[in-house]
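Escalated from tier 1: magnesium ion holo job.
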Amino acid sequence: MTFEKMTVAEVRKVGVIGKNVLLQGWVRTRRDSKAGFSFVELNDGSSLGNIQIIISKEHPDYETIISTITAGSSITVQGVVKESPGQGQATEIEAKRVELVGTADPVTYPLQKKGHSLEFLRSIAHLRVRTNTFGAVARIRNRVSFSIHQFFQENGFFYVHTPIITASDCEGAGQMFHVSSLNPDDLPKNGVGKVDFSEDFFGKPSYLTVSGQLNVETYCAGLSKVYTFGPTFRAENSNTSRHAAEFWMIEPEIAFCELEGNMEWAEKFLKRLITDVLRDSQEDIAFFNKQIDNTLIDTLQHVLSSQFIRLSYTEAIDLLIQSGKKFDYKVSWGIDLQSEHERYLTEEHFKSPVILYDYPKTIKPFYMRVNEDGKTVRAMDVLVPKVGEIIGGSEREYRLEVLESRMKEQKLDQESYRWYADLRRYGTVPHSGFGLGLERVLMFLTSIANIRDVLPFPRTPGNCEF
Ligand code: 4AD
Ligand code: MG
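Tier 2 regenerated the structure:
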């Protein structure tokens, strides 16, 4: 008899009833009935749901096999797919032969019982993908990453690999991790007692990138529509549920495109990610809707069917002041909006995604296009309920003189940005782009409240385990 290798997801479908199959995976639970059978719940990550394996006492070496098949162990099963009389499952497997591949000591294996807290599971990040929650997050993260490429490829964008190591601080916030090959115990010093970076690997200070934007802009000025999608690093010492020191960012850049066009791309892009996940990750999304937030599916559908609110920063400030709400951080024109303000707008006032634009230039980076008023820049942030800022972007300053004066204002070393300014010297064009944090969109799609639970191995202040 031959047994066809299949996944758990495949054998859960009625279409395969009657087939001889071979399954391999990890045991979630085992239960022994007095009627002469043992029931094993098997999962291989291909779907949220398990497949039930029924092992009869007639199985050769039944006693020895069964005693080793404990939660967490790995097995190979050969059997026949049957229609299941049980509720909540279409099929089950009548085992012909079960083989233990790897044991899991029932005394020390940490995932014995159901229902561990997310905090506890963070302390076993190397094993947590074997739980329903983290298996579902991993599959959705995979689906969204694929959709991101599909969306841009179908719309004529080129995928550009921007460098991870850089000498420039794109966001100008000074939140960068140093990259150095100098010996920290014996740093070379210059005449004034400072570290002599001319002796370092690159001959000058270098860092992990906070954004691929400046580099991707150069490719935009030649390929027209581009995007980068990669790891991004920020040494911001803010221990919040929405910030990670290492996260993934998607940054499209579009030539001959102004801020309005940029907003349209951002909205279309987010909606596409929601559409794909609702269609292709139904079982996982239904799980989050049941376990974490029973308004999740309704919220996602509502976002899909409504137009994002567009509101200038100045209008938002007026709204916040008029709201009469007591915010911890006082509202006045010129402040950088805090999470409490963003959440009021998107969760309470509009109950919808909001695109805020035209921010004060004093709180935004040097590269954003300055408006006629001389006070605001063509920035945009997309805010969504529960998460707050999910996208940050802008139209770029494409006038050389204005860009140079902005660099002076912000005390940037113009010589090291000369290559960036060259784009304004040779064939400059209006262009725009934005950055979407992959983890932020995953929080939105799963209703998981802490960024540490949508990253396989989160890096946050004081935490670099695994
Ligand atoms: O608003 P940000 O800082 O914008 C930029 O980096 C621009 N260069 C993007 C561009 O125009 N090409 O970051 C963009 C997005 C944020 O909206 C947020 O979703 C995410 O990146 N993000 C973070 N996600 C997790 N942890 C952090 N520490 C993050 N910082 C930003
Ligand atoms: Mg931002």
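The pocket of 4AD (ligand 1) is lined by residues 170-171, 211, 213, 234, 236, 243-244, 247, 249, 251, 389-394, 433-437, 439-440, 451 (CB under 6 Å).
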